[in-house]
Amino acid sequence: MCCDIMRVLALLLGMKAACVLLVSSLSGTGAVNNSGRWWGIVNVASSANLLTNSKNVQLVLDPSLGQLNRRQRRLIRQNPGILHAIAAGLHTAIKECKWQFRNRRWNCPTTHSPAIFGKIVNRGCRETAFVFAITSAGVIHAVARSCSEGAIESCTCDYRRRGPGGPDWHWGGCSDNVDFGRMFSREFVDSSERGRDLRYLINLHNNEAGRMTVSSEMRQECKCHGMSGSCTVRTCWMRLPSFRAVGDFLKDRFDGASRVVYANKGSNRASHRADPNHLEPENPSHKPPSSRDLVYFEKSPNFCTYHGKTGTHGTSGRTCNSSSMALDGCELLCCGRGFKTQTEKVTERCHCTFHWCCHVSCLNCTSTQTLHQCL
Ligand SMILES: *[C@@H]1O[C@H](CO)[C@@H](O)[C@H](O)[C@H]1NC(C)=O
Ligand SMILES: *[C@@H]1O[C@H](CO)[C@@H](O)[C@H](O)[C@H]1NC(C)=O
Ligand SMILES: *[C@@H]1O[C@H](CO)[C@@H](O)[C@H](O)[C@H]1NC(C)=O
């Protein structure tokens, strides 16, 4: 807490360099793990008035921007409007993560502290991989869309596709600017990662896998022209996939993620970018991961019980499905500890009728629902 205040003070005084030193000398361990620190800006989204104002002076007052490094803050200043897109993309990614994992022991828990995903981020398991991939996908997705909506001053629709595309259609209209999104996300998201080790390569690989999933699922959309819907001519543009589709793809990749090791291929020229040639499957009979595959290097914990040290919450209190044999079933979700059953009265609006004009009246229907919760 004191460090946040220091950071804001330092920002106010324009002492950015001094601030970095101050923070790292004061907070000890906190400064060690910078992985994904930019996620802390998720809290900036709640102060909408700060977001709509593109004057830097206001922006630096928000303490959650202290989670960004100097390069990231510069990128925000250079691209007015982009902070809102990043924060919105991060929100979408978190929502999607929770939805995809709602039936699993690890259900993508988040906290209100700047380290929103908790300690899972410092591990190297599948869940870590998913968090990196989905959040970097969230950024490219939101930035590419915001460009085409005119919400970012430094980018527009992607107008590079022009002219005839086929016998009865031509390129036109406003394509989502996925190239700008990718470029920005690489600079912004990847600059949180430091080091040359396996963890670093893996985090960057998973960031890129998220971006690749978004850009390779771009779809062509068309609009008909011509006499009363005759569709003799069509205008087409490229549209982003829905974020649900991105989440579905990444969830599949989570299930099929590759466990990798660092391949020391005798290259002593350390590269700045993640070099996929340095990651190879731990099991030599598996094929090497593609750029869209998620990679990890350590087994996941079982997520059954609370562990302060590893940051797992456990499944006690989670709602389970007593008739399912799958992961959401009480047996597996509760890790064999058993469950308690409660009945709840639930009142819902029902038998709604529309009255001209204009209101709707409903009755209240009460039903009892049975709820199972893990012990
Ligand atoms: C930082 O990450 C390392 C793993 O690289 C972990 O062992 C350590 O507990 C982390 N520290 C904090 C403060 O999260
Ligand atoms: C519980 O599991 C059963 C069997 O898989 C399924 O048909 C049902 O829809 C599930 N109920 C809920 C509330 O998810
Ligand atoms: C339904 O319940 C709400 C509040 O629970 C109440 O305000 C409303 O009057 C009820 N409607 C009827 C038709 O009983």
UniProtKB/TrEMBL annotation:
Keywords: Developmental protein, Disulfide bond, Extracellular matrix, Lipoprotein, Secreted, Signal, Wnt signaling pathway. It comes from the Eukaryota. This is Protein Wnt. PANTHER family: PROTO-ONCOGENE WNT-1 (PTHR12027:SF91), WNT RELATED (PTHR12027). One of its GO terms (biological process) is canonical Wnt signaling pathway. Its main location: secreted. It is found in: Secreted, Extracellular space, Extracellular matrix. GO terms for cellular component: extracellular space. It comes from Salmo trutta. It holds the Pfam family wnt. One of its GO terms (molecular function) is cytokine activity. Residues 1-31 form the signal peptide.
